Predict the structure.
Amino acid sequence: MKVAIVSYDLQQKEHRGIAVFSKALIRALQEAGAEIALIIDGDPPAHSRNERHLDKHIRREVYMSRVLDILHDGYQSLFSRGPRPIVTQKYRILRILLSFFGSLSYFCDLSRRRFVVDLARIPCVDLSSNIKSPYLRMPRLAYMSCISRIFCARYFYLNHYRAGSRKRSLPIKIIASDYDLVISTSPLNAEVSGNTRFLQVIHDLIPLEYVPASGESSYLFSHRLISAKKSDRMYVSKCTEMKYNQLLPNANVGTHSAVVFQPPSIDTQFLLISSVVDHSEAHMNIHCNAKLAPYRYILFNASVDPRKNLLLAIGAFKNSGLSQIGISLVVTGMLKKDDYSTSVLSEADSAVHILGFVSEAVKADLYLNTLCTVNPSFVEGFGIPVLDSACIGSQTLASPCESHIEISEHYDFKEYISICDTNLPEWTSAIHRIAHDELKRIKLVHQERNHRKERYCELESQIRNAFMKSVVDVISRD
């Protein structure tokens, strides 16, 4: 089977939530024997004036490197694509001209009622060539070992949003005649022509439920959800399926849908590598203002935005008095240039360490050595940090989101997940209790670490195998 995947989140700066799911899905499809192509928004210049005279094989290699660089670096936003070229920084008149022609192109595009992406007519990178790019050895792009081709559809997502912003516009049209299935890992205002099947993954309805959660308007997001009604669907949780069907009660007419339980996100190779270093004798090798000793910190692993409710975690930690006995709060979220991040910085004291977005190796180390984790989100579609904590055997304090409760009902996770209402007094008491219980329980650091590794590897394998079977069942339906 040939499958083309569209995943907006794989191009973002931080690989969280949907990006983690996308990587797990790509791996499951590859293990099931599918040939996978990736459709991205991005078409770097094929060659400069001087490069036009180079051999076509060299030009092809340069183009592949530029495409992989786009995926490796990621965008904070696909609509603000990094610094301007040096020549436009220096000459104001060039900036004005480029802005004018860019606007002209934009308005010309707006006059079109339908945007079309034909995979047979857009640039393509073949990753099956003999030359192995160094980008493919970088941890962030490890999933590329499962990808055979990358299709570069310039302004794909921009046109998708433009289509959704107009009342009478039609969804973006994808022509993938050579492929059996197109999967979008988040709702897309699109349709696939011909006999190619279209499957959309629904993670949540957060832009409709929680206003500060996204810069995207509820109008645009609604178009995406309505468009998904016409395709087959995959849900990441039963609560998301229930909410979607309540919102669009006739969505199941003539389509197939299924709920899958995704695997945890901690990479086992980094978990096992960390055994080389005995952290009971040495501090963890993490860049921050203070040294982190094993089981002497609490972990918050999520993005820094109002929906994740980091301010509650900081307030409860400060009120608990745990810093007085040498316990820290570690935050692995990237600060933004907004009021919420400013509030986080003003509330954080010397015992709160904001590391920013960390690598997969550091994340594995943090989970392996954390005293416990906290996840006070107001709303979630799934809740991967809660799943990661439960799988590795770390106690986690979580908000009463439906998805958190749903995760706790799997395996023995109720022994590790404590659900607590999101108010400051209860969270303060719960953090204090869980931290002190864990301090008493963990006697031997080496023994606790080995137990966590064994538990995680066993559960990760079970969940991943079950996920692959669920995915195969979904894509095999006629």
Observations:
- Residues 2-259 form one domain.
- The chain has two domains: 2-259, 268-461.
- Residues 61 and 152 are 15 Å apart (CA to CA).
